[in-house]
Amino acid sequence: MTPQKTPSIAENEIKRIIGTIEKEPDGRQIVFFAGIHGNEPAGIIALQRVLKYIKKRKIPFRGKLWALEGNLPALKANRRFIDKDLNRIWYTQNNDAAPLGTDLIEVREREALSTCIEKILSDSTGNIYFFDLHTTSAHSIPFVSISDTLRNRKIVKGIPVPIVLGLEEDMEGTLFNFFSELGISMILFEAGQHEQASSIDNHEAFIWMILVKLKFVKKDDFPDLHNCREILSKEWLFKKRVFQLQYRHLINGIGDFTMIPGFVNFQKIHRGQILAYNTQGAIHSPLTGRIFLPLYQDQGLEGFLIIDEIKIIWLKISEIIRKLGLDRYMSLLPGIRKHKEFQNSYVINRRLARFFVISVFRLLGYRKVIQKNNLYIVKRRPFEWEKPSMSVVRQRFKEISQ
Hints:
Layout: E1 17-22, E2 24-34, H1 42-57, E3 62-69, H2 72-77, H3 105-123, E4 128-136, E5 143-146, H4 150-156, E6 163-165, H5 167-170, H6 175-182, E7 185-193, H7 198-213, H8 225-232, E8 242-250, E9 258-259, E10 268-269, E11 274-278, E12 281-284, E13 289-292, E14 302-310, H9 312-324, E15 336-338, E16 345-349, H10 357-363, E17 368-372, E18 375-379, H11 390-401
Parallel strand pairs: 2-3, 2-4, 4-7, 5-6, 6-8
Antiparallel strand pairs: 1-3, 5-7, 8-14, 9-11, 10-13, 11-12, 13-14, 15-16, 16-18, 17-18
């Protein structure tokens, strides 16, 4: 690991493709995105290091690696975004994504990235994996977030950082959400705070552990793997814990949102505790849990999130139930029925179903919850265990991107 001061990149290093590696093609591809937000350069620096190390040491590499930069104009300005948050406008029906053909900078950036993604998908004949590298405005230990499928759980198993579930299902228009809907394994990694040099080391350690875990690099060809594990394991208290999203506070255009100083990710908070202020007054926590992604920057749509811990035993039980396919019998319970139009979806009558039903569905992977009058609609990501064929992925990409 190379010592580094506050993460920053020179303007001549701001380019769409950081680099690629392809030494022993086997049809598989792994894609890393960094700089989707322009004030988060740490992931770019880490990818530069990894590419340089592989090439300089001539490390054998199976498959193909892509390292891509996201919002180039925002990176040059060192701002989260210019016109719109690039990580909130990825082809969804329920967000405010601008239609194609507008002059918004982030729409153009989205289309440039889409062109790269389309080429990558068209060239893929084997497994393909996507990773989105980020940092946070508040101080934080590193963590991963996944769409809660058994395939994704398997990918991050053994990575010594906490796992947060439910982010991409509840946050519309993210790159994370977009790829999860395609059925592709997409993993979000948050390395730490924007300005901390340690965020670069955390990114680099994570990238190497993933490359070895997915067998793009053999363990014997990378002698520093133990060091990478030590870097990510430094916060031992949380490294094997799993959390789920419980609440998201949207700013909704209300002016002068200001977090109370000093909150850090995973810090315990209590119901009624004052967390922030806006022009309407104090903002109190609606429940007891742990604060997550508190906003300490000028730009952003969410003021803070609240998460709570899931006991590992429940995750193991849910895995057994899902492997046996027992969730298909949920419609036998009072007030629950399969959705007539959408696969992987159930309709819950709030008047008839027990209050804990939503929690059960979440454990089974149904983490998207939509409330309509007295009904809940719960959805699970497609391709729970098996991966979709590339022809199916390419077709879904075209449909969703329209």
